[in-house]
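PROTEIN DESIGN WORKSHEET
SECTION A - STRUCTURE
LENGTH: 157
TOKENS:
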């Protein structure tokens, strides 16, 4: 996490320090073991993968409710849609779902490609990580679609 003097510290080992950003002044993700899932939850990559699959396999939601969660709600572009807190899109002819978030010093994304069964998780623990670019590279590895203009994994272009 970048702190006020410009140095970078490990948020977990420097709980006394916080973000200098005005929109999150003093926030340190290491102190927030329970927080909103989009910007402050703690997880491991394997747990994010299990969570993503559990949303669609009947573990967490019955199939009709999973369809409600992942159903397109509002168009963002020709093949990109908003859903309930998720980005969803059609990429190379298949659905892609994703949820990303971040806080000072951390970032995360999980993606699910239900037509193929693939899922991905990206976790970072420092400021300045190009999360959107990493999502695009993951998307390319799974679907073959080249990274787009920075809209991320679920955009579809």
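SECTION B - SEQUENCE
RESIDUE ASSIGNMENT:
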């Amino acid at each position: 996490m970048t702190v006020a003097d410009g140095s970078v510290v490990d948020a977990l080992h420097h709980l006394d320090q916080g973000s200098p950003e005005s929109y999150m002044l003093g926030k340190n993700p290491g102190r927030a073991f329970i927080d909103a899932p989009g910007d402050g939850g703690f997880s491991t990559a394997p747990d994010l993968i299990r969570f993503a699959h559990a949303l669609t396999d009947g573990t967490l939601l019955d199939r009709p409710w999973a369809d409600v969660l992942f159903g397109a709600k509002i168009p963002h572009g020709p093949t990109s849609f908003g859903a309930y807190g998720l980005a969803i899109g059609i990429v190379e002819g298949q659905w892609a779902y994703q949820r990303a978030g971040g806080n000072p010093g951390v970032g995360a994304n999980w993606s699910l490609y239900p037509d193929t069964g693939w899922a991905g998780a990206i976790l970072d623990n420092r400021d300045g990580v190009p999360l959107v670019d990493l999502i695009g590279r993951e998307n390319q590895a799974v679907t073959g679609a080249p990274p787009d203009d920075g809209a991320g994994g679920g955009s579809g272009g």
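SECTION C - NOTES
The helical segments are 45-56, 63-70, 131-143.
Residues 35-143 form a domain with the Beta-lactamase fold (CATH 3.40.710.10).
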